[in-house]
From TrEMBL:
One of its GO terms (molecular function) is phosphoglycerate mutase activity. Substrate binds at residues 10-17, 23-24, 62, 89-92, 100, 116-117, 184-185. The keyword Isomerase applies. The active site is at H11, E89. Its EC number is 5.4.2.11. This is 2,3-bisphosphoglycerate-dependent phosphoglycerate mutase. Catalyzes the interconversion of 2-phosphoglycerate and 3-phosphoglycerate. Transmembrane segments: none annotated. InterPro entries: His_Pase_superF_clade-1 (IPR013078), His_PPase_superfam (IPR029033), PG/BPGM_mutase_AS (IPR001345), Phosphogly_mut1 (IPR005952). It is an enzyme of class 5 (isomerase). Keywords: Gluconeogenesis, Glycolysis, Isomerase. It comes from Arthrobacter flavus. The keyword Isomerase applies. The lineage of its organism: Bacteria, Bacillati, Actinomycetota, Actinomycetes, Micrococcales.
Amino acid sequence: MTSYKVILLRHGQSEWNEKNLFTGWVDVPLTEQGRAEAIRGGELLVEAGLLPDIVYTSRQKRAIITANLALEAADRSWIDVKRDWRLNERHYGALQGKDKAQTLAEFGEAQFMEWRRSYDTPPPPIEDSSEFSQANDPRYADLGDAIPRTECLKDVLDRFLPYWESDIAPDIKAGKTVLIAAHGNSLRALVKHLDGISDADIASLNIPTGIPLIYELDENLVPVKAGGTYLDADAAAAAIEAVANQGKH
Ligand SMILES: O=C(O)[C@@H](CO)OP(=O)(O)O
């Protein structure tokens, strides 16, 4: 049986993960813990004998630096890299820069969870004049009017899937071990697609920072094992729980 491997890696802890702020497209750096998670992620790849041939990242430095640190730890800094905005985190609209606990307290749990995890309800759009807007960021100048001002998970799938089909899937089918260094919600979109998760059930799926998630795929790019395999399953379980509970403590 033909089988392919793809490695999903959410960036290590960012400064705004630590501060519990909605982040989205704001380009925040990793914390020291996040850098350590990225290096550990690379070591786990070596221990598993999984050496990437090509790396895909978003245009955001928390994913880019995570990929760099993981690949350095695996002595694979030299592999080809492709960056695309379609792998960016979900744009969090007017919530970008807001404290998750304060937002939960102000709007209540139902509204908070609808904005965080519903499939098709985006938060209110961000004003271009906001300090947390990307409307005038030169890195997105090529998007023109396509630059988002808010996104729900469905919007992320709609912008991510064409890139998956045009670029990532062909590399996988060419037999390359592909590393995708991206974000909690852009990777949730990919997992939804791969595992065929329903719009309702994807709400309860969370992805931890810095722990490689391996999918073995058959010739049709269908997972051999639904949900894939985390290289450090115990650490992943604890970290998934923490992401699910963000804002609630
Ligand atoms: O703030 C964000 O951009 C994301 C990921 O950190 O948060 P959440 O898990 O709440 O979607």
